[in-house]
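Entry for the shared binder. Reason: the reviewer on the internal report wants the predicted structure included alongside the sequence.
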Amino acid sequence: MEHDHDPEAIRRRLSVRPEQSYLRDWVYGGIDGAVTTFAVVAGVVGAGLSARTVLILGAANLLADGFSMAASNYSGTKTERDDKDRLRAVEERHIDLVPEGELEEIRQIFRAKGFQGRGLEHAVETITADRGRWVETMLAEEYGLPAALRSPVKAAASTFLAFLICGFVPLLPFVFGLPAPVALATGSTAAVFFAIGSVKSLWSLAAWWRSGLETLAIGMAAAALAYAAGAAVESFTA
């Protein structure tokens, strides 16, 4: 069992506010960092340019694209919080102006859940007796909003760090001047894709190897397209 179900254990578990997950930000940043940086490597190599050019463009991609993704994630996550604040203000105003209408909304919401008769009226009375609970119920039931939203700063930081860590892997063979850098970059990047997918399976029902292969296929497909584009450009400019 994932957790205990005796009354005291349940009380302790429910008394703690659930932690927000930033898994999707890490996965998003990690995959995109590995994909885009290796795409730069593959594109530059496909165009027949030097290892120095690979490093310059790869480093530029790490910083610029990584920051861009983090900034976009920050703005998108903050928009979710701003929208919830807006809708909360709407519900507050409606409760002030048309309380009977808002009360009827609660009644119909819980009637649709199967409440009837005195049980329904008791639920409506209990929820609307506390203004904060009333508003939060409307936000969850009418708009489908979660009780707690993720931090924009933590979401952005998770994306940026994952982008830097995973995106740096394709550049390592060029940084250290290793032999056969393209082959090493390809192999190490493939390993990153597979590792991300495998770890991601811990939060899903998919088998670790299936999730790993799925992510590997997506990442290497992007790399192959970039290499083909670089090779095409090189053939046209030769």
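Summary line for the report: The chain has a mean pLDDT of 89.
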